[in-house]
UniProtKB/TrEMBL annotation:
UniProt-listed CDD domains: TM_PBP2
Membrane topology term: Multi-pass membrane protein
Family: Belongs to the binding-protein-dependent transport system permease family.
Bilayer-crossing regions: 36-57, 106-130, 150-176, 269-290
Residues covered by the ABC transmembrane type-1 domain: 102-291
Protein name: ABC transporter permease subunit
Localization (cell): Cell membrane
A Pfam family: OppC_N
Length: 305
């Protein structure tokens, strides 16, 4: 009994050391991409801002100040110290709405990516493992979905389901799912013929165990990269749906909806449109830069020597 305990201790230590080594290697390749590091820090700032929105925001995102309609930013003529980035056409503080809008963006990204990733992995595993007519049917369906522009397909689905943030997120998830299906299928087909899979099958492992416990853990690298890129696409598509009036509905402080509400004031109140647009631009760019760094760090073919 004592010998067994002694034997397990070195194994636990070596396992922890291996994990630390893998993390060091990952950070080494990730940090070589300066843009990815900058994107990571910007994304972490966005997360902190979203979590601390009730503390950071100077005003409620819904409160209207009728004596402060279309106040310009503080550094321009006519600006007020109480409204750093100005106010919108109904007197709401733009800075506060941008801060709370970060919560919407993160929630949209997490929800859409989780839904599309989960569904895509499940369908892709079935297609790649069983092949035959099942694979043919699934992949032709994915090809049909990919034949349509993603935003156009999302608009059609939202028009059927009804305009709302929830329906918009579901529609976006369905348009992003084929990318995960194709990636998972290709990875499963490559891994299925490996010796460790054959050994597990000869040891008596069933199809479900082979798919989810044996093959799937070795297919995660490209899926993580695709999930990061899908996260930014989800935010961008949700903003587009909100701008078209098919996503989040007013008075929600979602960045695309803020742009839609300010369309008629573009020429005489530039700040009402500029700051939500910059928020979308910076967020999507930061996440895409992170995705590039993850690709460099996780794909052995792209690791720099």
């Amino acid at each position: 009994m004592a010998d067994t305990t002694v034997d397990k201790a070195p194994e636990a230590v070596s396992s922890a050391a291996l994990r630390r080594q893998m993390l060091k290697e990952f950070w080494f390749y990730f940090s070589e991409n300066r843009g990815a590091v900058i994107g990571l820090f910007v994304f972490l700032i966005l997360v902190v801002v979203a979590l601390l929105a009730p503390v950071i925001a100077p005003h409620s995102p819904f409160e209207q100040y009728r004596d402060a309609v279309l106040i310009p930013p503080i550094w321009t003529e006519g600006g007020r110290a109480g409204y750093l980035l100005g106010t919108d056409p109904v007197g709401r503080d733009i800075l506060s709405r941008l801060i709370y809008g970060a919560q919407y963006s993160l929630f949209i990204g997490v929800f859409v990516t989780t839904l599309s990733l989960t569904g895509g992995i499940f369908v892709g595993l079935i297609a790649g493992y069983y092949r035959g007519w099942v694979d043919t049917v699934i992949m032709r369906l994915m090809d049909i979905i990919l034949a349509f522009p993603s935003l156009l397909l999302a608009l059609v689905l939202v028009a059927i389901l009804g305009p709302s943030l929830t329906n918009g997120m579901i529609a976006i998830a369905l348009t992003l799912q084929p990318h995960f299906v194709r990636l998972t299928r290709a990875a499963v087909m490559a891994e299925k013929t490996r010796d460790y899979v054959t050994a597990a099958r000869l040891a008596g492992a069933g199809p479900l165990r082979l798919m989810f416990r044996t093959i799937l853990p070795n297919c995660t690298a490209p899926l993580i990269v695709q999930a990061t890129l899908s996260f930014s696409n989800a935010i961008l598509d949700a903003a587009a749906l909100g701008f078209l009036g098919m996503g989040a509905q007013p008075p929600a402080p979602e960045w695309g909806t803020m742009l839609a509400e300010a369309r008629e004031f573009i020429l005489r109140a530039w700040w009402v449109v500029t700051f939500p647009g910059l928020a979308i631009l910076v967020t999507v760019l930061a996440i895409n830069l992170m995705g590039d760094g993850l690709r460099d760090a996780l794909d052995p073919k792209l690791k720099r020597s």
